[in-house]
């Protein structure tokens, strides 16, 4: 998993509450188990018209936000079904951080497992960050996980907190498999010991 230490990029505003996982990645895109290629389906029902053309009013279709790396969203982001394709689609599009006042639990956990940092802020802080994000190409924000701080385009900052273990995993690019592999020597030693003690097993 790619490490997340410090991220600087354009923040896109999505002032919508209760954005569910079906809005993030519609069910039509769930036929694959690959983590790549899903970026084209991110927010598909809002990004594209019925004829497949782009909806010019959707934020990620606007020139200033096409390469957004951060999403500033309304309350209860990632609710609905537990599809892991939602963080896969965000990551494949290039979004590495989502900021909101709250997240659905399963989506929140899935973000950390896929290299995305979900940040919880207060409603007042979200309002400030949403204002920063609405500055178009000037909406450049820095998210510093090491110092747990978001810095806006004018230099103002917002502090945030992340669970210590999850922070460690993101800073070091450790997913569940990587964490298991860190114990490879212990696992091998245990298997050897077990084989010696129970040769019939």
TrEMBL record:
Pathway: Amino-acid biosynthesis; L-leucine biosynthesis; L-leucine from 3-methyl-2-oxobutanoate: step 2/4. It is an enzyme of class 4 (lyase). The keyword Methyltransferase does not apply. The keyword Protein transport does not apply. Residues 1-122 form the Aconitase A/isopropylmalate dehydratase small subunit swivel domain. GO terms for biological process: L-leucine biosynthetic process. Its EC number is 4.2.1.33. InterPro entries: 3-IsopropMal_deHydase_ssu, Aconitase/3IPM_dehydase_swvl, AconitaseA/IPMdHydase_ssu_swvl, IPMI_Swivel, LeuD. It comes from the Bacteria. Signal peptide: none annotated. One of its GO terms (molecular function) is 3-isopropylmalate dehydratase activity. Catalyzes the isomerization between 2-isopropylmalate and 3-isopropylmalate, via the formation of 2-isopropylmaleate. NCBIfam families: leuD, PRK01641.1. Belongs to the LeuD family. LeuD type 1 subfamily. Heterodimer of LeuC and LeuD. This is 3-isopropylmalate dehydratase small subunit. The lineage of its organism: Bacteria, Pseudomonadati, Pseudomonadota, Alphaproteobacteria, Hyphomicrobiales. The gene is leuD.
